[in-house]
Amino acid sequence: MNATALKETARLLYFAEAENREIERMTSDYPDMTVEDAYRVQEELISLKLKHGSGIIGPKMGLTSRAKMQQMNVEEPIYGYIFEDMIVPNGGHINMDKLIHPKVEAEIAFLLGEDIEGPGITGEQVLAATDYFIPALEIIDSRYKNFSFTLPDVIADNASSSRVVFGERIKKPENLKLESAEVSLMINGVVKEQGTGAAVVGHPANSAAMLANMLARKKQKLKAGSIILTGGVTGAVMLKPGDSVSAQVEGLGDVSFAVCS
Ligand code: OOG
Ligand code: MG
């Protein structure tokens, strides 16, 4: 894709999100769009968002569960970025009329105390550089019709990022094994999805390590103070007005929000 096409694609995605309008997949106009092109579109989209005044909280990983990777036929997860204006306070609400067709998933986030620079980073190194674990609910809202996309489409669309609710930061408990921590996602008091931290490439720290190694190819690193969303532990569940949503992460506590019309 040439520079004009990259910029135009990023603009379409930016305005689809701003005006909560669904659009055709980018690959219907650009069937040859590669993963590299898609990350370049994402970079244009990120700079548009920065220009419009929202700062970056940190990166997010997506398609980290084996189920999602198989579904998309990929061997490597994808990443995108979470912005300040996507943050919903714990116990707060989201407005359905500002979103397209949102889904929610339960995640574990890491707050880094030190920079992490790949390549060759392991989950152990990530854990050593992490100060806090945070239970989180991510609201994903693909800008594409019917939430249907190919890999380059979803990368260009900032990995469907839309909103995030963080629970309380928990100073890294030395004896908590995140891989076996039970995570449940509840809607209106009913458990809809359940998993353990191991669903995220064996351990959520492995996901952050993969991210550090992916960013290293671009001479970028994970920065101290960033919050990293490591990817859905549970499947994503469609939201509707009136839903009361919560997640419980064993050893880390709860996080919740409500859906208004
Ligand atoms: C892509 C984003 C996936 C996750 O945690 O796997 C994601 C999508 O499924 O729309 O955020
Ligand atoms: Mg996610």
TrEMBL record:
InterPro entries: Fumarylacetoacetase-like_C, Fumarylacetoacetase_C_sf, Hydratase-Decarb/MhpD_sf. It comes from the Bacteria. GO terms for molecular function: 2-oxopent-4-enoate hydratase activity. Keywords: Lyase. It holds the Pfam family FAA_hydrolase. Residues 72-257 form the Fumarylacetoacetase-like C-terminal domain. One of its GO terms (cellular component) is cytoplasm. This is 4-oxalocrotonate decarboxylase. It comes from Bacillus swezeyi. The lineage of its organism: Bacteria, Bacillati, Bacillota, Bacilli, Bacillales.
